[in-house]
Amino acid sequence: MWVTNLKIAGIVLGTLLVYTVICNKIPQLESSVPQKLALGANATPDELVAAGEQLYNGIGNCTSCHGLGVRAPNLLTDEKGAGLIGQRCGKREAGKTCKEYLYERLDQPGKVLLPGYQPIMPVITKQLPPNQVWSLIAFLESQGGTVDVTGADIEASEKAAGATGGGAAPASAGFASGSTQPKAIIDAAGCTTCHTIDGAGGAMAPDLTHVGSRRDAASIRRKILDPSSSIAKGYESFAGVMPKDFGTKMNAAQLESLVQYLAGHK
Amino acid sequence: MTHNLLLALQAAADTTSGYREFPLIGERAAVWIAAQVHLMFAAFVLGVPMFAVVAEAIGIFGGEAKYDRLAKEFTRLLLVAYSATAIWGAILVFLLATCYSKFWAYLTAVFAPSMWLYASLFFFESFTLYLYYYGWDRWHEGRAKKVHWMLGILLNVWGTTVMFIANSWLAYMTSPPRDVTPTTDPTKIKLWHATVTAIWMPINIHRLIANVVFGGAIVGAYASYRFLAAKTDEERAHYDWMGYIGNLIAISALIVLPFAGYWLGREIYEYDQSQGITMMGGFMAWLWVIQAFLIAVLFLAGNYYLWIGMGRIPGTERFRPYIKYLLIVILLGAIVWGTPHTMIADAKELAAMGGAHHPVLGALGVMSAKNTAVNFMILTTFLSFLLYRRGNKELVVPWAKTGTLLQGALFAVAAAVVLFFGIRGYFVETIVRIGFSVYQVLTVLGCILSVTVIDVLLSRGARSVGEIQWGKMPARSQYALFILAVTFTWLMGLMGFARAGIRQYWHVWEVMENTSPYAATPALGYASRLISVCVLIFLSLVGFVFWLGGLAEKSTFVPSDAKGGKHVGH
Fold it and tell me: What is the pLDDT of residues B470-502, one digit of tens each?
């Protein structure tokens, strides 16, 4: 019986060993915790690139789409002979430097849609503070190109954000600089990245031009505060994309202003 | 006053200084091991009563006494595993309370009433189990036997309710209601609101089926050990049969498990797409390649056991030439299913591959090919089982030939439908392609169901070519059952990592952040080492308690020539 016991132990341990070894041989990807960046006007290009690489592969969640080359273009590989993103970014749009082009893609991703892809990219400048946005750009430039992002870019963006009350503005400025103008709130919230309003905007979420004829004010309010409360038919695959924190970002006056504005879009 | 209240509310989700380091392995690994081993024992003690009750019912209503003995033996395994479940549950609670004190305080603030209910039901479950087992011989006839069987059903009701309650806690951690924020006072969240969350019911159903799979596999391993240790032909025959039943239960339930998994995945996506992307296309993408490999092992080991088992059935010689083709289909299916596609790769890897995926083989890594492959594997496994079942039967019904042809035609139609949607999937949009998988699955299930019904009708009054020679199995077949048990257990650990890992650095998704030194979700390599440790602990303990059970049994073993026919056990 001892021989049988040893054989059984051997099979159990051998099976466990095979599974463990295979799992340790494949690429090891860890999901890290977002780190606060302390990059300012004195940041060097190397520091920016290193921070950008961490963001790109980590909390920026860029690889979930760009790392695959299926949902979005792969930025780290050659694309139809145009080279890596650092090589091709300066040739994408006439008159735009690589840095300008990349910033625009992060700030207004729905502006130009590459053929074959859906408008699913969120507005990164509203999700990340300026130092992280510029770190990302520095990292992308480093992929076959020359890094010309400097600490001065961060400083300029921080000042601009502070002045306009954009998403990258310091928290003390308040959402949309405290404005109750519906269009300022819509801009600050980035609604048109996914929704179309009055003919302009994305196609990833329902067109809001006539939303008032489909939903009353209470329904619109509920949808803004709890986006998963109802999912429009045909947009099921995008469920969960709409931010859930508008209720905590906007003040009551802003929320009501936006709700009444949309409810009036019959 | 208002200021103090606000501070108190903000503190609800504040985990700063809410951790205590566990010596040597750290608090994360300690809780991980305790939770996983507890879940393994729990899955076993919840899964086994389900088929114990079914086996007892076959014994009562079908008049086959051997099924009643089998049900009792299942329950004996349950008895010894039950206390281990409770011990590991207590270890888990103590570790959470001491190492994750603020998180534990938060959970208890939300779920205190359901935790009290859980403890009460656990009490009822224990005593129902004791009554069920110890009353077996006393209430063995007539109405008393039926009352005894009802006790078994009651045991399942308690067990399932207990599991549903515990599931609500972990479902809340992944998909808390959207109106719960970091500043929500946990004591103000209504219990039912916190219980019925987006993924609660899919998890309940998925675990219910998975417990049956797991229980069947562990029973199979137990039987194979007893088979190898058997001293008499009679014992060997009994445990050979028991191992076959265990394998049949595990593989049958495994076939429907992916549908529950699909529902769970869909609910995760609907709740929060970023969780879905993390799970399927993010840092966990490789996990699904490993899962495909493990399931391929399960299919291969399960089929291998059936094919060897044909050796003990007179009349199966006629089917043996086809086995090599079945093997080829399963191997090809496994290769396609395991083909990586949408994997996150670094620049060097992408350059070496020439793109985001392999230029030729990449086409086999997409959903259309994978769904087709796995459906073919399921159909092939079902065909193996059908050949096994038909082995020693000579059909006598007048429509035997037509019926067999009809069965063949159903297989052919199912294969054609699966293949058609598999190919068509390459030419349509993603959302349409996802819908195709439902058609493929329904076709395969429809085929399995209708072919089984025809087979039962065909077998009416069938002549036996010869009795199944239970016990006449080579030892290697029993080792296949061990591989099945180890793989099922390991797979359970892996899927547990996937479910918990999608929360990443959140104790409660977007409500309570994990700020401990172990907040990062580890890579698969580290996870695999911990899973292996958990499986080893579980199997060692389960081996020990089964050995203990065996010691007690030997003293009351009834020899085969005793009055009342064959009897193994007590």
Answer: 888 999 999 999 999 999 999 999 999 999 998
Pair of tokens at residue A210:
């006539």
Check A28 against B525: CB less than 8 A apart. Answer: yes
Nearest Cα to B521, choosing from B506, B497, B501? B501
Residue A22 half-sphere exposure toward CB, CA atoms < 13 A: 16
Name the residue among B483, B523, B524 with its Cβ closest to that of A11.
B483
Contacts of B475 in chain A (CB under 8 A): 4
Q: Please write the tens of the pLDDT for every residue from B440-462.
A: 989 999 999 999 999 999 998 88
Short-list B284, B297, B277, CA closest to B484: B297
> Is any Cβ of chain A less than 8 angstroms from the Cβ of B229?
yes
B485 to chain A: closest CA residue: A12
B482 to chain A, any CB pair closer than 8 A? The answer is: yes
Give the whole-angstrom CA distance, residue B419 versus residue B332. 14
- Looking up tokens 């994408």 gives A92
- Contact (Cβ atoms closer than 8 angstroms) between residue A151 and residue A39: yes
Look at strands A200-201 and B393-394 and give their pairing: unpaired
Spell out which residues of chain A touch residue B228, defining contact as CB-CB under 8 Å: 4, 8
In this complex, do B178 and A227 lie within 8 Å of one another by their Cβ atoms? yes
Residues A120 and A165: their CA atoms lie apart, in Å, by: 24
State ipTM: 0.87
CA angle B304/B308/B313 to nearest 5° reads 140
For residues B499 and B527, is the Cβ–Cβ distance under 8 A?
A: no
Q: How far apart (Å, rounded) are the C-alpha atoms in residues A5 and B515?
A: 45
User: For residues B264 and B271, what is the distance between their CA atoms, to the nearest angstrom?
Assistant: 11
The token pair that represents A235 in the structure block: 């947009």
A155 and A149 in contact (C-beta within 8 Å)?
no
Q: Which run of H or of E encompasses B91?
A: helix B65-99
pLDDT in tens, B48-64: 898 889 889 988 888 78
Whole-angstrom Cα distance, residue A91 to residue A180? 40
CB neighbour list of residue A57: distance below 8 Å, 6 or more residues apart: A63
Contacts B347 to A, Cβ<8 Å:
76-77, 84, 143
Chain A residues inside the 8 Å CB shell of B356? 67-70, 74, 77
Cβ neighbours around B67 below 10 Å, total: 19
Using an 8 Å Cβ cutoff, are B374 and B329 in contact? Answer: no
Interface test with B, best of A17, A54, A59, A77 (most B CBs within 10 A): A77
The rounded distance, in Å, linking the Cα atoms of A255 and B440 is 46
Q: Which two three-digit tokens encode residue A202?
A: 């994305």
Domains and CATH numbers, chain A: 45-173 (1.10.760.10), 175-263 (1.10.760.10)
Q: How far apart are CA A151 and CA A103, in angstroms?
A: 15
8 Å CB contact of A29 and B522: no
pLDDT at A45 over 60: yes
Does B413 contact A at CB distance below 8 Å? no
Tokens of A171: 């928290």
Average pLDDT, chain B: 86
